[in-house]
Amino acid sequence: MKLIIAVVQDKDSNRLSEALVKTEYRATKLASTGGFLKAGNTTFLIGTEDENVDDVLQIIKDNCKSREQLVAPISPMGGNADSYVPYPVEVQIGGATVFVLPVEQFEQF
Known about the structure:
The longest helix has 13 residues. The chain contains two helices and six strands. By secondary structure, the protein is an alpha+beta fold. Strand 2 and strand 3 form a beta hairpin. The relative contact order is 0.29. Helix 1 packs across helix 2.
């Protein structure tokens, strides 16, 4: 058995949740916040048998797309202003960050 932890952008979370339910994979959704952009994310915890991991990963891949977004830089407060860029920068956001972990034991009460 494996535990799949998928961190996805909030914009993709409903689509992924619906796809998981449609294919009868159970998941727990947790609200989370990204460290770099401080933007809202959703973390999915999905427990599944080893043979289903590739199917779940494909569902995540199909429903979580990366996109470009302009981000206004944060002014350095008391820091080194030499590397400060005073104009918006385009960054890639979205997609999914996925971890697949082995599960030693699973209980449901």
